[in-house]
Design goal:
By secondary structure, the chain is α/β, with parallel strands linked by helices. The chain has one domain (about 30-105, about 145-340): 3-Layer(aba) Sandwich (Cytosolic phospholipase A2 catalytic domain), CATH 3.40.1090. It has helices spanning about 5-25, 45-60, 70-105, 125-135, 140, 150-155, 160-165, 190-200, 255-285, 315-340; strands at about 35-40, 65-70, 115, 120, 170-175, 180-185, 210, 215, 235-240, 295-300. The strands form 2 sheets. Strands 1, 2, 5, 6, 7, 8, 9 and 10 form an 8-stranded mixed beta sheet that branches. A two-stranded antiparallel sheet has the order 3-4. Helix 2 (about 45-60) crosses helix 10. One of its GO terms (molecular function) is hydrolase activity. One of its GO terms (biological process) is lipid catabolic process.
């Protein structure tokens, strides 16, 4: 069997499995502007998604059904849902604003940053310090397990309320340390530690224990998980909000650049493989059920500042607001071009995932 034939046969098996799965529990609720959202993580770069969500919320014809995310993507999803629960569309916008504004005030970043606007970055001293910190385990540098994000999330999110009456289906991705498997925490069980687990970078934070099991950042196993958005009552329009560049420039051979690229590949590999499988399934579906699943994508491909991996740690107010503004502008452009397609046709170019 040739490699090409083998890939086609595999895609057919995937499609057959998906079709059986859908037939078991899948129904469509007609709506011309109902979206499921897949939110990628990326530390401080998640402020770009803040801007994307803010612009989507400004469009009154768009509604939402489910949100899946890992790391910063999961946090954006939960803050979004919590705000909507408390005050609808306006409440969601306010909740995102309040959360990211507080994140940007935790550290006196002006002491360790240089430049302005898109050129803002860490100083040389700050970069060296960041590399130095990476040589020690969190238990050595932070024996008490202090995490400012814990207090911020606890103050901003009503976890009990979300468990009782979340307005959306939520899928919070975390990576089970012992098995390496993806764990999706749902809205009806969501607790603070589950969200912290989704954003736990093991070189910076203590491993998060949930129900006696250790978890790390969800980006290691899915960033984000797309498959849960394909199932359940609700929209067949899936909007992917991506932060990682689809294609990176040539990587130089310095130790720092190699380590950075290894980390980037680790955080996108599972997502790319999942999209490859879906693309193959679409190609062999013979105008089947998957063609009724309409995929869309808003990315940050042309934003050079997000290609600098070290800025994922730059939780500095002006930098976060700049990313928010870029996200808003990009989304406004996307809506102008694609709003009428929601509910009718997909706008994602599958060539991204078939190379």
């Amino acid at each position: 069997m040739t490699p090409l034939a083998s890939r086609a046969d595999k895609a057919k098996l995937i499609w057959a499995s998906l079709r059986r799965w859908w037939n078991a529990d899948f129904s469509v609720v007609p709506s011309s502007r109902l979206l499921n959202l897949g939110l990628q993580g990326g530390g401080a770069h998640g402020a770009y998604t803040w801007g994307v969500l803010d612009a989507l919320l400004e469009e009154p014809s768009i509604e939402f059904s489910a949100l899946s995310g890992s790391s910063a993507g999961a946090i954006n999803a939960v803050v979004f849902a919590n705000g909507w629960m408390q005050g609808g569309r306006t409440g969601a916008r306010t909740a995102l604003d309040d959360f990211w504004m507080e994140v940007g005030q935790q550290i006196p970043w002006p002491l360790v940053t240089q430049g302005q606007g898109d050129s803002i970055n860490l100083t040389i001293v700050a970069r060296v310090l960041t590399q130095w910190l990476g040589m020690f385990a969190p238990i050595q540098l932070n024996p008490l397990g202090l995490n400012p994000l814990r207090d911020i999330l606890n103050n901003h999110i009503d976890f009990e309320g979300l468990r009782r009456k979340s307005p959306f289906r939520l899928f919070v991705g975390a990576t089970h340390v012992n098995s390496g498997k993806l764990r999706l925490f749902r809205e009806h069980e969501l607790q603070l530690d589950m969200l912290l687990a989704s954003a736990c970078l093991p070189r910076l934070h203590h491993t998060v224990i949930v129900d006696g099991e250790p978890y790390w950042d969800g980006g290691y196993s899915a960033n984000p998980a797309v498959f849960p958005l394909l199932r359940g009552k609700g929209s067949l329009d899936i909007l992917l909000i991506l932060l990682a560049p689809q294609l990176q420039d040539d990587v130089d051979q310095s130790v720092e650049s190699i380590a950075t690229r290894i980390q980037e590949i680790g955080f996108t590999g599972h997502f790319i493989r999942e999209m490859h499988m879906l693309a193959d399934a679409v190609n062999v579906s013979d105008r089947g059920r998957l063609e009724t699943v309409r995929f869309h994508m808003i990315d940050a491909e042309n934003l050079d500042v997000l290609r600098r991996s070290e800025t994922k740690l730059l939780a500095y107010g002006p930098f976060l607001e700049m990313l928010r503004d870029h996200g808003r502008i990009r989304t406004k452009q996307w809506l102008a071009e694609n709003l009428q397609s929601i509910g009718k046709r997909g706008t994602l170019d599958w060539a991204h995932w078939t190379v």
